[in-house]
Protein 1
Amino acid sequence: MMTRTLRYALWTVAILGMAGYVMLAGHGLLYPQSGDSLDAAVLQQAVNITENRLPLADPAQSPGVALMPVAPFVVSVLVQLFDAQPWEPALVGLLAILLVAALASVVVAKETESVTLGVSAAAFLLMGQRISQGEVVMNCPQSLFLLLALAGCFVLRYTRGIAGTLLASVTIATACFTHPSGLWFAFAAMLHLAVHDKRRAVICALAFAVLVGGGQFAMTRLLGEGFNLHAWQIPARLAWFQPVGLLILLGSQLLGTLGVLTLASVLAFALPVRPWQGAGGLWTWIGFAALGAAMLATQSLAPSPDALPPAIVAFAIVGPISIQRLVKHLSAWPGSSRKAGQNVVLTAIALQFVMLLAHVAPSLPGAAM
């Protein structure tokens, strides 16, 4: 009875949380944030593409924010169809993050053999977006990068041959030219394969060398100094040691609002089978990559919305998987039962929902302050 009640409660909260995100995101599309400099830059570069001008080619017209070329090319499709509209980058970002949530749900459901945990992971991911930015729709380049990186990792995890390795490499390499944090995920994929499958690791490393290294050379030749300005010079110019930002990320956001998922991910390292080993160990490596990208994003002179979203995506996947592994291990001890273990898993997920709701509720429209 308790298991069924917990399961129904989790499904209800997860569906309401995802529906609420979509509704607020729809409002954001109708009334886009005109002050978003990154989305404005994406839209301007997309207009350049539709007018047969190369994006990022003129350093003198730089918007002052780091931007990679893939997002403007994607948004340019909408510009060609509807002319330049401020909602177009927001729509691309929204569709991308919804697909990220769907992928995360499938991954968790497959790894834990629990649809309930899969749906909860998608809800964690979507509800967590308000933690990072206070806004509903993520910025367009980061949403696309997360989608490409996660899709590449998905292919890498659930395929075995050379073709799957090459497809995953192409997808993750494209993520590197969507957002600089894609490089963290590329290194994570190679490290996972180096531990798990050395033959595929060699193929993946060669593919990344050609795609990322060759792509860097080709875009430098094609786009000129504008590309190097956005890819390297602006991030380097803004880099600055910010211990307070790092402390807020680790102490308030990861150990605070996402505390259940974070703590479960850490405790999983005490299990006899290390979480980075085996085919499923890829998601632990992705967690390392997301944490590294998030920590680096806090070390900037300019306030960055890029810090938390990769970590939210990673912990929304790694957290439920870790909870399931921990409880499964403890349930194998004498005197324990599988049903009691299921109740513990569902209770832990419910506690994480409580923590998220406690953070999100005060920022909802009409909430009493």
Protein 2
Amino acid sequence: MKSWYLINPPSTNSGGFEDESFNDYRYDAISDILGTELASDIVIYKSDLSEDTSVNVRAVVQNNTAATYLNAMQREFISTPGTFTSGDYVYFEGEYWLIVGRPGTNKVYEKVVTLLCQYKLKWQKDDGSVVERWANFTSASKYDKGEAGNYVLYLTTNNYTILMPQDKDSETIDGRRVFVDLSDEPRKVFRITRDDDVLLNYPQHGGIFTFIASKDEFDPHKDNPELGLCDYFEPFVPEITEDDPPVVTIDITCKGEKMVVAGGNPKTFTANFYSSDGQDVDERSMTWTVTCTPENEQYVHYEVIDIQKIRIQVDYDTSIIGTSIMLTAKCYNDSESIYVEIGGGI
């Protein structure tokens, strides 16, 4: 459709179809720039810095020649729409930059604001696994003199505002103690508090967690400088065996016929099992299952008396005589089942 409003007679430079042309080739301008030396190579990482999810892209970097030291902690990256997500890291010039702003596009290119990550936090979750996240730090104690106490005892004080990626592992840092110390043998400990999880949340574009870190005291009994972990504890590691369970042969036996008399004495059944390849068989791995029709469940009673033996008794009722019970013994991945008839004689 020709857009006559673009024509400004007597100009001969407009034909009326310019808006369609601009729309068709709107991404070419940024693509052309990204292919020149004006753009830089960057790597985008998810919060866990997994190489499997990393993406190499070209981007234009703005504010790379900052005039103040605070501006030097911030960069803006421009690339094709759909490139950035808040909470991701941009690896640029050997440093990690956290995407803290909501990605915005003018339908030609996409732009994000990032902050420099100065320190990598490290902590343990409840299961003992270790989480590491690069974070941005700013002072939250501008007018604090750095110490508190009385004439007898002085304690150091300090507070940081910390920005981190918004994910399930990052939220577990709330309430934990961490090292924030650049020395080889860290001693400066901070407690993470006040998780403001909605301030920088962008429902369609990721998000950022905001925490407050308050100075705490080093505890030599719980804090491990060598591992860089405060309140360290040995994680529980379940014993893993590479050996497959043995192949077991099971034989269910009893005295006389495989039958239980309704209203009569209980009968004992025994499971004998052995491994065909000579492996040891742990009898504690054996289980019993007694199966009967729903109508008969009220009459059938059983008791496991020493793992390998089970005692079955059946109450007298004419409706149950002539039916049967399925008795199953299972050991590891192998099982054996027999049918036990219910008789009517006493």
Protein 3
Amino acid sequence: MTKLNFGKKKSDLIWGLKNEKIVFEYIEALHPNEDVYFFRNKYNEFDFFVMNSDKEVIHEYELKSRRKINFYTHEDLMFGANKKEYADEKLKLNPNCKFTVLWYLTAVDEVYFWDYYDSEKQKHQYNIRLGWNGNEKRVPCVYVKTKFMTQLELYD
């Protein structure tokens, strides 16, 4: 038997895409009267968007899949600060749009979420510091305190 070796980065991308497809179904269930889409550009800051019947984007979701993490043993979970900056810019143009970051903890098959809406009003919920995002260097990341996250109920 031959073991396929895609390399760490490519394997992480394949794993992440698999998890996006799993969570996508739950996002669709949260929006039964709207259309849910993947962003076509795989490098977009957020992964999914929701459009209402007027073809307006009303909600965007970013999914962070994590291996070997138990929610209750972490004080915070992170995502790249570029995603917060993206949401800040979009909120200036459309203050009614919602932005949600999801963490899919695959080891325990649980999803937690945090809704982001205002940098000033929510600054007690997170802090920004350098973190490792899977690349070779440390970059600014948003560390959201887990006490401000909510578990998304997953139903089969």
